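Two quick folds needed for the group meeting slides. Do the first one here.
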Amino acid sequence: MENNFSGKPQTTMIICSLPADLNENITSWKEYRLDFLHSLNQFAQNVDKKTILTIREPDEGGKRHFAKTQKNIFYKKMIAKYDCLVDWEILKYDKKINLPSHNLVLSYHNFGKWEINQLENIIALANQLPARFLKLAIPINSYQQLGQIKKLIETSDKPVIWAGLGKLGKLSRALYKFLGAAATFYGLEKFPTAPNQLTRQEADKFRLKKLTANSSIGGIVGGEQVAKSLGLEFYNQYFNSHNYDAVYLPFYCDNFNDFWDWLQGSSGFLGFSITMPFKEKIAKKLDQKQPINLFLPSSNIAANTDIIAFQKALTHLQINEHHKILLWGYGGTATTFLLAAKKFKENIYVDGRNKTKLQKFIKKFNLKSATSAPISQYHLLVNCTPRGTSTTSLQQEMLPKFTKLIDLPYQKKPTELVQFCQQNSLQFVSGQQFWYWQAEEQLKYFIKQLKGKL
């Protein structure tokens, strides 16, 4: 399965960006940010050919100002001694600086508004100047911009070092090969040198050093919660342990049309898990009647593995047609539960906080309202809402009586509903267990896709 990467640079550099006063043993590519020092005379790190020395000015996102002459003299001394790379802002560079082109990284930083005309001019200027690399550090706040920067990088006659900023900054860095760049940066979690920087743990998890021009890209599409998805660990560990050239990334999205248009203009993706709030939106794009939580664009396959997970949960908890079920929620996941529990429909009661949406849901599926037809005790509570998590607490004294639970949310510590079940010796299926059941099914699709069997 081949991706549509730009084939230009053969160089691959995953660069650890460090404050110059931090002692950290990095044996591969590294950048020392000397503007973190009060004086250049303080610099006492090991430097070699895989080192980039950077003195960033305050208007470039740096910490301190150093005189242009002082900076130039220091750079030339370090180049002569170590044959290292040095960084200079392209709009402040002129021929009088006269640094060796083989050691020079020309960089452009923009922390403000996206300006495509300016970027075109920067790349045109870089193409005229002698340098080894062009570094771009600009905000990426939409998938449209991600597509535009990919096309712009193709016009550079120098290998590009990519340092995305903005809402999609981290994702864009993980996609550096997809963008056609030669390199990207990561930092140390407690000592970042730039906003939206990948951490060393994330760089390792996404195996950035192993990504190739043919790597298959997959991931999870959703809101801010995708950064904490269990899938990032689960799928990447599986791909690594089974030697698949693939990666699973968090595709944060706040505008599904923006993501969808970008996806339609790209190719070669492995597949995407779809989470809230986009399960129903992608179903409409694909003319599907039921919510979708998995899409394989190369094969145009859409599926909902939550249905299988719900069926496993109902079997595990030994729920039958005579049991009374309380369903919390009226979104895509609640709709999926109804698909999995068709034979239990006569005994399903629904509740939710937004009464207008709740009534539409009840009318659409011809269900019973838990408030208009209350039950003294339910055999099963199915929570398809964030209730009981760290963001949406609940009052236990207001809980309906139930004996078993399917709780969809998951977080590091048990949710309040799971804790309640543990304290009262009630059977439950946690969000983690539910997630694992549906992830096993998605993995089967990913493996078939990787093996070319779809």
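Then this one, please, same format:
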Amino acid sequence: MLYVTENNKNPLYLPARFILAFLANIGLAIVYGLKVNINVTMVAMVNHSAAQGVEHNVLDGNITNRQLGCPPPSDTSPNQLAEDGPFTWSDTLQGTLLSSYFWGYMVSQIPLARLAEVYSAKWVFLGAAAVNVICSLLTPILTNLHFSGLIVMRVLQGVAGGAAFPAVHILIAKWAPQNERLLIVTLIYLGTTVGTTISIFLSGVISVQFGWEAVFYIMGGLSIIWIILWIFLVQDNPDGQVLMSNKERTMIKKSLAEIRPKSQVPWRKIFKSNAFWAILIAHTCNNFGFYMFLIGIPFYMKQVLNFNISKNALYSSIPHIPMLIFSISLSKLFDVLQSRQKIKRITARKISTVISTIVPGVCLVGMCFIGCLHYTAVVIMSVGIIAGGASYCGFLSNHMDISPNFAGTLMALTNTVATIPGIALPQLVGYITNGNQTIHAWRLIFGLTNVMYFVELVTYTIMATAEVQPWNDG
């Protein structure tokens, strides 16, 4: 059985809080994996020759891009260049298809967060994953009928996905002891990294080997196993979990203040709180950079650097592995320093946020000046993605600091507004690069991203706090 013995001497048994962290990690990996697989799969779905005006020179087998992007990497063979899918979607329509997920994501978070707080975070999170799985399995059928079918599936996935972060935040607030909170937060939220890494890589491999439809069938089908484990091994709070020792239960409850979800959210006090606005602004601005690396970079690698699908998927996914290691190491370091009273909690939050802002920003500046140095670009982008993982120890952990009772609602509020970049960025990229797929066009996109990073850095550094706010009690 997966429980800890009373004396905690058997190393083969896992503490219940880490079983929760492990399964929540996988759950977020599923939700995020099914969210981002379209970013690479879209490259395999679109007929780029028809949609973007790429000329195939039949005489010499080369491709001439009218938009004056970089030549393909020197190690790309001629027979790897032509990779066209069945759909003649314009850049603008592609932007709409990519952003449609966030239409549903934006409207569902606050009501589903309250449902998770009042009813059950466990079952709300399960529903979020299950709906995403079902929509993934239906996506190929409906997309082949009309692109509007893909939009409907993406919107429904977004509606369900909106519950994921708030529900997990509520579970963390009830399960993570203060001296392990950064570690558990990071372990759980790195599920987004795990899901992104696996999904981006497998999307490229599967689409090349088996076709784009197989991406949605295989990823959706494998996720069903997790649903069964989540139902039987996870509970909303330690009191409801039988697969744990009394020692662990007592330790968690002593570490945490009693969390009593209120029937009334103090909306006015929240919106007057500088602590809340610091998190909201940081979350929104940082998400612009996050989606730049998540959504924009695969298209930059295709449109400008001319990587084929396989290499695009590989180089887009690789940075997330060291990012995972970096994030866990940073969270453990700050947990140890805080437990030894060497550093304040808010200092850890601000240092982490600074790292996740300045380093990616510098990397985007570098991208503006390296031209067609393909693998230098890959290295620079990788450094930016890795450094972005520091945000898990920064503002993304701050909601639970200032209000354990309303952690889910606060996450829903900030993540709702932070969804705007997910809607705006694909549309912005499509608008700027439509008929203008050049390094110069992407410099403008990178510059706008750095403006957002600057706003985040200044606002969070000045306004953020880690103290429990008076309105936490309603």
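Slide caption for protein two: The chain has 20 helices and two strands.
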